[in-house]
Amino acid sequence: MAALMTLEGVTRTFGNNIALNDVSLEAHPGEVHCLLGDNGAGKSTLIKIMSGVTSPTIGQLTFDGKPVTFRSPRDAQAHGIGTVHQDVGSIPLISVARNFFLGNEPTKGWGPFRRLDHQTANRIALEQIRLMGIRRIADAEQLVGTMSGGERQALAIARALYFGAKLLILDEPTAALGVKESKIVIDLIKQAREQGIALVFITHNATHALSVGDRFTVLIQGRVASQFRRGEKTREEVLNLMAGGEAFDAVGHGD
Amino acid sequence: MTSAMETTIADPPAPPPTRFGLVERLLRVVWIGPLIAALVIYIFFVIVGGASGFFSIPGTAGWLNTAAELGIIALPVGLLMISGEFDLSTGSVVGAASIIVALGTGFYGLPIELTITMALAMGVGVGCFNALLVNATKLPSFIVTLASNFILAGTALGLSRLISGSSNVSLKDAGWAEAVLGSKWMFFNVAVLWYLLAAILAAWVLKQTRFGNWIFATGGNPDAARRAGVPVARVKLILFIWTAVSAAFVGIMSAVMYNQGNAASGQGYVFQTAIAAVIGGVLLSGGFGSVIGIVLGTFIYGIVSLGLFYTGWPTDWLATFIGGLLVIAVLTNNLIRELALNRGKKKL
Question: Closest chain B residue to A178 measured between Cα atoms?
Answer without folding.
Answer: B348
